[in-house]
DNA sequence: TCCGTTGCTACAATTATCGTAGCGATACGC
DNA sequence: GCGTATCGCTACGATAATTGTAGCAACGGA
């Protein structure tokens, strides 16, 4: 990967139209993105606590996702360490809350 | 990939806990999953129309996602051809509708 | 100083996705 | 029948993303 730093280097990813909803669906469609937001829905977590919460996912991807989510303004790194949702990120997370009930109803 | 047919063959994917919400977040976190549901939100689309709607995404992945989404009960293949959302899939899609407004508000 | 934890990175191996091409089946007009 | 067009779907090599393991520098207690 093009080791994005600062500016968003998009290689083959979707959302070539630039429409906000497409960019958002593309970002959230990356692996662990939704899961990270979900796990941060409560209190902030340290990078390692987050990794534990995410089934010991590879730190490489977690860091990549955290960087992307931070650039998107959904996640922030607190002063005393630990990742948490921004106000914007919390609003986004609220959008997904109905998913919980849906999921329970879904798997019979 | 293990060419899943009938039963769900999960290789390295997340959601090892089996909790419905995790399975759902995992499924929706695959590439083009969210986008497919989004594009099918209106009328049913043929596989090729769907491909066009999804920025000419590779048919390989689209078919894989469609199979998964069908097994999940969100998408169905109509009698006269064309993919559409099931009742369940439509409910799921409704959950994402607030995302549209959020996305517009998001990108300044 | 020695531990322990923080956020974060390197690197090779494994998967997933891409892009192009093409299949069998079906439905048309001729 | 014959060609043509579409349908859903698949093969396959090339490329990009993800995994798993190991480890870094920085900071804080003991």
Automatic annotation (TrEMBL), chains A, B:
Keywords: DNA-binding, Transcription, Transcription regulation. This is Helix-turn-helix transcriptional regulator. Residues 27-107 form the HTH hxlR-type domain. SUPFAM superfamilies: Winged helix' DNA-binding domain (SSF46785). GO terms for molecular function: DNA binding.
């Amino acid at each position: 990967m093009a080791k994005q730093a600062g500016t968003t280097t998009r290689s083959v990813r979707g959302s070539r139209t630039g429409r906000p909803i497409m960019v958002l669906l593309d970002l959230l469609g990356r692996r662990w993105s939704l899961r990270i937001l979900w796990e941060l829905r409560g209190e902030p977590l340290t990078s390692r606590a987050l990794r534990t919460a995410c089934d010991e996912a590879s730190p490489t991807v977690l860091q990549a996702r955290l960087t992307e989510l931070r650039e998107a303004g959904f996640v922030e790194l607190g002063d005393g360490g630990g990742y948490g949702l921004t106000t914007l990120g919390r609003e986004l997370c609220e959008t997904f809350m109905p998913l919980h009930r849906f999921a329970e109803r879904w798997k019979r």
